[in-house]
Amino acid sequence: MTRRTFTRTLAAGAGALPLIAAKRRKLKIGYTCITWGSFPRAPETLDAAMKDISSLGFYSFETFPEILDYWDEKDALRGMIQRYSLPLKSGYISTNLIDPSLKDQELARIKKLGQTIKKYGGTFAVLASNGVKRDSYDFQAHRANIVASLNDACMALNDLGLAAGLHQHTGTAIESRDEVYDVMHAVNTKHVKFAPDVGQLQKGGADAAKVIEDFLPIVAHMHLKDYKGWDHYAGYCPLGEGKVDIVRILDLVEGAGHNPDIMVELDPSKGQPQTPLETAQTSKAYLEKLGYKFRS
Hints:
Largest sheet: 8 strands, parallel
CATH superfamily: Divalent-metal-dependent TIM barrel enzymes
Number of helices: 11
Order of helices and strands: HEHEHHEHEHEHEHHEEEHEH
CATH topology: TIM Barrel
Number of strands: 10
Number of domains: 1
CATH class: Alpha Beta
Helix content: 40-55%
Strand content: 5-15%
Radius of gyration: 20 Å
Shape: globular
CATH architecture: Alpha-Beta Barrel
Structural class: alpha/beta
């Protein structure tokens, strides 16, 4: 074989690699409901979100357990899950991690919300910290309370039969790369798993793919979100249109061997250029190009 033939053969093989890798994709990807404006203050939007997510063939959904409670009180939630054949995967819980005077109250609330997630078949509780004024926030002053509160909350959720983990978020008590590393190196990772938002990591100034790589063994749940810093969707965008190395991140979790939950997410905004359904269609098309399959 000549050098030129060898080089041509090598190049052809390299070009085939994405197709080979595509056949090995095994993660069953879900979607969160916030793109449709599904927040505790607007629980009625959940039905539309579930309808669209199901129509696109995503495997599961995530929402706030307060919204689940709203529909549960109407005795309608189980019917919605059955109608759309869309299982609940996870519930998002925001909690105060920095005020020790609220610890018992917050722990009781987390347990109650966890029971709701469990009741409807969810398996994971996503824990995010309370918002803070970042320009005057002193992380080190609150570090001990954050670590202790996360340990206690996740152990309580584990007792309910739910896995649980930290979800870092911009504008909260755990935002920066250094804060994430500090907390995750200090907590009891037998109970506190890592449940990152990769778009939030990128927006907060971190290399999202590098963070995932460093904590890969304990990444149990993820919000798969892209970021490009424009005027819509709080700076986020449909998958494949931004700065986040989505392919690298998915390659990492595909190879991790423990199949973390992956939930696509995109924040809503006023005057958004696409409907929630259209943004989800864009992200789905991108994932299909990477080899992911969806329900028919």
